[in-house]
């Protein structure tokens, strides 16, 4: 069934809302790292205090490993089953897991929860969400479809993020620190709200999304996609654009992993900011700034004339700002300002990750399998980075943050090279098409 008129945008918004909760819940450590430390060591003795940073990395590792495998299969499933069925199944699974996580179960159970989060994210929701969003617009509308979707995700993430800050902020003690019992109680409330949202959006998708979406309305143009086949899989694997785009997004996403994951803890442990204030900063960076910048980046890329070139420019700026984090850590106010400037850049990159598909020659008809393979490769930092960073922090203390930023700068330098290669490749394709 063809989705027409204003309903296209409603479908984009509702699927983006589900995707917003999907990327919020498995990454709660990005906004509430210190509260999680208290939750797992003082509220309940889930793990010893000497191991808690690495444990947070462990369940991040579990989530990342499943996602790396799942993105490929998720792309295949998105080309076999309807987006509606996959989104509903993923929403229900992640909703139930959120209720379970709210009870703060054992260490093993928490790892299992994040493995299930990985299944819901990569096997069921992610490629279906990308494919449905891409179907809602013609090729000329892809930038605005994806930037609008990212904008909605960011605004909704802001709302639910501040709800979390408000809830967990009640645990702040007047003399500093957090009350473990209140942290545990408010954590349960936050996770139950998140679980309820997954269920709600699953119901909305069941009501508004057709069983089989055939394409978008825009004159006589219709986006068409094909069912999965080995021929399409081989075609995607053989395309240079698949590997260039995978590498480019990998290095861009490395900045997001470092910035979203550790700026909050960096603010408290290195800059001396309270946990509540640090979480507030995290919500502003990760959601308000992300919403605005992902929306604006589409227009910036259109002005520059190339999405890959835009990402390359952003990587240059992000690498410089990452070096500045190390240099200015003793100048607290300046360093906090740099963290926000850093967020402006790394969050902006997200707005055009997958709007770059057409630029490297990947046709609309094989979107599912292409996004699956690319996602499996480009989101590899989800597999190892939390574990690696947790090891550095447990082993070297605050010095570990320097290793995190140095690693990220190295990714930036490599990413700049790949961005240049991708841009040159896109120009070659453009010349051949004339």
Brief descriptors of the model:
mainly alpha; 434 residues; 0% strand
Written overview of the protein:
Helices cover 78% and strands 0% of the residues. It is built from 15 helices and no strands. Helix 6 (142-169) packs antiparallel against helix 7. The chain starts with 6 loop residues before the first helix and ends with a helix. 57% of the residues are buried. Mean pLDDT is 87; it is low at 217-223.
Proportion of residues in extended strands:
under 5%
Q: Ends: how far apart?
A: 34 Å
**Gross morphology:** globular
Order of helices and strands: HHHHHHHHHHHHHHH
| Average pLDDT reading | 87
Counting helices, strands and paired strands, the structural category is mainly alpha
Let me know the number of strands.
0
User: Compute the gyration radius: what is it?
Assistant: 21 Å
Largest sheet: none
Report low-confidence residues grouped into runs of 5 or more: 217-223
Number of helical elements: 15
Give the helix level as a range of percent: over 70%
> What kind of oligomer do you see?
single chain
Give the topology, please.
Blueprint (H helix, E strand, L loop, with lengths): L6 H18 L4 H15 L8 H29 L2 H20 L4 H29 L6 H28 L10 H29 L21 H9 L1 H30 L5 H30 L2 H21 L4 H18 L17 H12 L2 H16 L2 H35 L1
Helix pairs in contact: 1-5, 1-6, 1-7, 2-7, 2-9, 2-10, 3-5, 3-13, 3-14, 4-5, 4-7, 5-13, 6-7, 6-10, 9-10, 9-11, 9-12, 9-13, 9-14, 9-15, 10-11, 10-12, 11-12, 11-15, 14-15
């Amino acid at each position: 069934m063809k989705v027409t008129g204003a309903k296209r945008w409603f479908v984009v918004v509702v699927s983006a809302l589900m995707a917003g909760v999907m990327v919020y819940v498995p990454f709660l450590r990005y906004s509430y790292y210190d509260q999680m430390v208290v939750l797992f060591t003082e509220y309940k003795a889930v793990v010893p205090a000497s191991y808690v940073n690495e444990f947070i990395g462990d369940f991040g590792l579990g989530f990342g490993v499943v996602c790396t495998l799942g993105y490929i299969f998720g792309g295949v499933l998105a080309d076999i089953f309807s987006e509606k069925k996959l989104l509903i199944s993923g929403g229900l699974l992640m909703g139930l897991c959120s209720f379970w996580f709210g009870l703060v179960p054992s260490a093993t159970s928490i790892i299992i929860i994040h493995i299930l989060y990985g299944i819901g994210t990569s096997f069921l929701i992610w490629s279906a969400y990308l494919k449905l969003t891409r179907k809602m617009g013609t090729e000329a509308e892809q930038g605005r479809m994806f930037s609008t979707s990212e904008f909605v995700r960011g605004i909704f993430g802001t709302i639910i993020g501040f709800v979390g800050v408000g809830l967990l902020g009640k645990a702040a003690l007047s003399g500093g620190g957090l009350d473990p019992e209140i942290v545990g109680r408010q954590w349960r409330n936050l996770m139950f709200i998140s679980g309820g949202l997954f269920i709600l959006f699953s119901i909305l998708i069941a009501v508004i999304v057709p069983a089989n979406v055939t394409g978008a309305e825009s004159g006589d143009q219709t986006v068409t996609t094909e069912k999965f086949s080995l021929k399409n899989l081989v075609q995607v694997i053989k395309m240079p654009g698949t590997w260039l785009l995978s590498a480019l997004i990998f290095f861009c996403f490395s900045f997001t992993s470092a910035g979203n994951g550790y700026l909050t803890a960096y603010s408290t442990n290195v800059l001396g900011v309270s946990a509540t204030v640090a979480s507030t900063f995290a919500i502003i960076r990760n959601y308000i700034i992300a919403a605005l910048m992902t929306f604006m980046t589409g227009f910036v890329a259109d002005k520059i004339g190339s999405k890959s070139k835009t990402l390359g420019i952003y990587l240059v700026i992000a690498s410089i700002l990452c070096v500045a984090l190390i240099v200015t850590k003793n100048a607290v106010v300046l360093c906090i300002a740099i963290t926000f400037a850093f967020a402006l850049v790394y969050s902006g990159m997200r707005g055009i990750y997958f709007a770059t598909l057409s630029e490297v020659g990947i046709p609309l008809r094989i979107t599912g399998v292409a996004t699956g393979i690319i996602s499996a490769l480009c989101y590899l930092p989800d597999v190892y980075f939390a574990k690696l960073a947790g090891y550095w922090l447990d082993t070297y203390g605050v010095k570990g943050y320097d290793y995190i930023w140095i690693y990220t700068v190295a990714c930036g330098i490599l990413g700049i090279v790949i961005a240049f290669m991708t841009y040159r490749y896109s120009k070659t394709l453009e010349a051949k098409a004339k």
